[in-house]
Design brief:
single chain, alpha/beta, 7-stranded mixed sheet, 4-stranded antiparallel sheet, 24 helices, 18% strand, RNA-binding
RNA sequence: GGGCGUUUAGCUCAGUUGGUAGAGCGCUUCCCUUACAAGGAAGAUGUCGGGGGUUCGAGUCCCUCAACGCCCACCA
């Protein structure tokens, strides 16, 4: 078809022009009529809706998009949905502030409730369903902004395939999956010591921990032996837990303490008698070699408590304060008085006070020795975690059963990890689990645990036999919905029922993204066409959470891995090589970068980052991307100008040796790019295509333009034109996954349809038979370069004529040179040519200045 | 303490069955060449982290050490 090239090609406005065209043409629509083997399905990460997108999102989502576009061109029907993670604490906090409301799950649903126009000073308590409705409303706005940015970035998502992790479909899937876990015995509740955030007042899972170096101090405390034979001195960083002490412990082989085992001592200040016990976890080289076990100071205490069958004497409440009632074992007068000094104080205040008391009583030896040590925090929290006993729901994940752990590790090995070494992180994590997956949270905004409990005659819940809704009723909210066989007026009454007040942790729902996006049990026809999915792209920091939990759910529900490939993206580093934190003031908004450099340039930068490799935020790389896009505009315009109005000759017209060589080189490029994309290495594909493209522009086009204009006759011209047209066409397709806007623009100048709907080229497409010698191209390039060098070194214009070129080279290379001699002559690289065999050497004589 | 990754030109990084060190940026010099001056051409630049080994030959394979980064671990 005749080309229609703009007078002055430009990148201005291509993002808007083409993203609108793609939407209206439905270029990226998923076609649900195809079978599983024709589908390529992607479990897109749902970004957190209440944050803001940062450049890291742009980076990693671009990687996925290049794969999606490649697979689409390979003829796959790409299932590329978008989710929004609007479920969880960030949204909860935002909604509270934005509307001036607070969630009270004990309140009934009010269908007429509307928040006031201005948030009131005093937060309005509302029911959980009302609260969720507001969360839904507010996150919709954020999601629109995110979608606009992703569209501008050129993500080839099918925007009709959207979900939010709090929407009805997700809540239903989350509750359904849980009820099935419950029915099969994979989910259970247990009253047990749990890591607890005292500010959020919720239990926290192992996967959500992080350690922070905090100042602390060793306090040396003397425990008097009850037999009067002296003292045992322990060192502790948490003297305030003395009333919760249930034993001392030392290593069984520690000679210093062997004689003390199974004797008793009295706790300083409180006079409670506790035993001295032996356990192999006690470390002789730590502190004084003997530790006090409290319920509970840290996770080791929990292990000791469980394995040594110790009693529970909890003193830290869920608000992080010392509870008012002293353990009943404290009976001495001073013990009761000392406890009263601590009751109601925060842990920190209690520590200050107890150190004073210990000083007065003389039971602390010397001054506290300041240290810093790692302390466990909830990753979103501000105060150290406490350990409190509470009833929580768990899903088995291998943390307590070797057999389940082995199954999870086997699933990990079934995945193709990109890059491969990321698998070690999974293996490491699963191998190090020390408890099952805690899924319940004492928060409001999230998917409610879909259970009620029958109340006995005393009004106490029967936790062992929860009341379970039928799947047909889902999603339910037990705070307002009523179990079958009961009426609302029985809520909270003896012999009545109560709803489980808790919600699922956000990972308990997002571990089901393949099921939610794929329409599991809602649209099984669709689900069977997309599951198990082909690709899970995600950050390597959430292997232990999102990736692992998704594997756990899929393993139990479907008996398979949830996807076949897991591609882990790297971090964006700021120019100081530090991980770019959202709190860092230097964070540039993605939109401003897209506006400044253009979407293709940003994508080029992103695609230059190898899979899984941390990459610096580098504006220089973006500028190169923009330069490439502009070069593509200009080169296309030029080549189309050479090709003229009539159709380009077919590939069979390619007869000139240099053209045959070009096609051969092009075939090699196609194979390399294909192999790279198949291995999820978009960066390598780009690198290869880019270097070919610059060679094509700088050398090949320069070399053959004269012949293509017809200066060596029609047949020779047709050969050049066919090679130019074929190569241009192929290059546009090869670049399409990386820089979709400029390729669509230049494709539209001379081809019908969207370039993104074209097939991926194969080396077979460009084969001209077993001909073409790459040596011809190499020699031609060398000759062109020798001519340019001579002009540059003589500080002469590139228009300067070459009077004579003497070439000494091998027989084969001289033969190759003769095959492009005419083209070189027309390109101005030679006029007179002298050839001789020998050591490689070019001598160039320039014409005299005019 | 365990695991993983990184270490190649001033900077950012390629280097895939072991075979004479690469790209881009930056730098120097030159050129308005009717596709491109927000461009083009050419040039300079490296004990490939250290040490040892295998080999005719090692940036590439093996051992070892070091630095940096990340993950994990029972952190009294």
């Amino acid at each position: 078809m005749a080309a229609s090239v703009p007078e002055k090609p430009s990148l201005d406005g291509v993002e808007q022009k083409w993203s609108e065209a793609w939407e209206s043409l439905g270029v990226y629509n998923f076609d649900r009529s195809t079978t599983r083997d024709q589908v390529y399905s992607i479990d897109t990460p749902p970004p957190t809706a209440s944050g803001s997108l940062h450049i890291g999102h742009v980076f990693s989502y671009t990687h996925t998009d290049t794969i999606a576009r490649y697979q689409r061109m390979r003829g796959k029907n790409v299932f590329y949905p978008m989710g929004w993670d609007d479920n969880g604490l960030p949204t909860e906090r935002r909604v509270q502030n934005y509307y001036g409301v607070s969630c009270d799950p004990s309140l009934p649903y009010d269908p007429t409730f509307r928040p006031p126009a201005e948030p009131p000073k005093q937060a309005i308590p509302i029911s959980r369903p009302n609260f969720i409705a507001l969360c839904d409303e507010l996150t919709k706005e954020d999601e629109k902004a995110f979608e606009a940015l992703f569209r501008r970035l050129g993500l080839s998502v099918d925007w009709s395939l959207q979900y939010a992790t709090i929407d009805t479909r997700s809540r239903r899937a989350s509750q359904r999956a849980f009820l099935r876990n419950l029915a099969r015995g994979e989910a259970y509740s247990q009253d047990a010591p749990t890591l607890w955030d005292v500010d959020y007042k919720t239990a926290v899972a192992q996967a959500e921990l992080e350690e922070r170096e905090r100042p602390a101090a060793y306090h040396a405390l003397a425990f008097h032996k009850t037999d009067g034979s002296g003292d045992i001195v322990i060192e502790t960083t948490r003297p305030e837990l003395l009333p919760a002490c249930v034993a001392l412990v030392a290593h069984p082989d520690d000679e210093r303490f062997k004689s003390h085992f199974n004797t008793t001592v009295r706790i300083p200040l409180f006079d409670v008698e506790v035993p001295v016990l032996a356990h192999s976890l006690a470390q002789p080289d730590k502190g004084s070699g003997v530790a006090m076990i409290c319920t509970f100071g840290d996770t080791t205490d929990v292990t000791w408590w469980r394995e040594l069958n110790l009693p529970t004497r909890a003193i830290v409440g869920r608000d992080g304060r010392i509870i008012s009632d002293a353990p009943t074992v404290i009976t001495s007068e001073r013990g009761i008085a000392n406890y009263a000094e601590l009751a109601g104080k925060s842990v920190k205040q209690a520590q200050t006070r107890i150190v004073e008391l210990l000083g007065q009583s003389g039971e602390m030896l010397g001054e506290p020795k300041a240290i810093t040590h790692p302390v466990k925090f909830y990753e979103k929290g501000d105060r150290p975690l406490e350990i409190v006993a509470s009833r929580q729901w768990y899903i088995r994940n291998g943390g307590r059963e070797e057999a389940v752990r082995a199954e999870m590790q086997k699933r990990g090995r079934e995945l193709n990890w990109v890059p491969e070494f990321m698998w070690h992180r999974y293996e490491n994590w699963v191998g190090g689990l020390n408890g099952d997956w805690l899924i319940s949270r004492q928060r409001f905004f999230g998917v409610p645990i879909p259970l009620w409990y029958a109340l006995d005659t005393d009004g106490e819940p029967r936790f062992e036999t929860p009341l379970v809704p039928s799947e047909a009723r889902l999603p339910i909210d037990p705070s307002t919905d009523v179990p079958d066989g009961y009426t609302e007026d029985q809520r909270g009454k003896p012999e009545g029922f109560s709803g489980d007040p808790d919600i699922f942790d956000t990972w308990a729902t997002s571990s089901l993204t393949p099921e939610i996006a794929g329409g599991w049990e809602e649209d099984n026809d669709l689900f069977n066409r997309v599951f198990p999915m082909d690709l899970r792209p995600q950050g390597h920091d959430i292997i232990r959470t999102w990736l692992f939990s998704t594997v756990v759910r899929s393993h139990f529900e479907h008996g398979s891995v949830p996807w076949h490939n897991a591609a882990l993206s790297g971090w964006i580093l700021d120019p100081d090589r530090k991980k770019m934190g959202k709190s860092k003031g230097n964070a540039v908004t993605p939109l401003s970068m897209l506006e400044e450099h253009g979407s293709d340039a940003i994508r080029y930068w992103a695609a230059s980052g190898r899979p899984g490799v941390d990459t610096a935020l580098d504006p220089a790389q973006m500028k190169i991307g923009r330069k490439l896009a502009i070069k593509m505009l200009n080169a296309t315009k030029f080549v189309l100008g050479i090709l003229g109005e009539s159709d380009a000759p077919p590939i069979s017209a390619i007869t000139a040796p240099v053209d045959q060589a070009l096609l051969k080189k092009l075939g090699v490029l196609i194979d390399e790019a294909t192999k790279a994309f198949d291995a999820y290495d978009y960066a390598r594909a780009l690198e290869k295509a880019e270097s070919f493209f610059w060679f094509f522009c700088d050398d090949y086009v320069e070399l053959v333009k004269g012949r293509a204009y017809g200066q060596q006759g029609d047949a020779a011209g047709a050969s050049a034109k066919a090679a130019l047209a074929t190569t241009l066409n192929v290059l546009q397709r090869l670049f399409a996954p990386i820089v979709p806007f400029v390729t669509e623009e230049i494709w539209s100048w001379w081809q019908a349809g969207s370039v993104h709907a074209q097939s991926w080229p194969t080396s077979g497409d460009v084969s001209v038979g077993n001909v073409g010698d790459l040596l011809v191209l190499d020699v031609a390039s060398n000759t062109l370069m020798a001519a340019r060098r001579a002009k540059t070194e003589a500080k002469r214009s590139m228009r300067t004529e070459i009077a004579l070129m003497k070439v000494t080279d091998s027989t084969a290379r001289l033969a190759a040179l003769r095959l492009v001699e005419a083209d070189l002559r027309e390109a101005g690289a030679i006029t007179a040519l002298e050839l001789s065999e020998g050591e490689f050497c070019y001598t160039v004589v320039l014409a005299d200045p005019v």
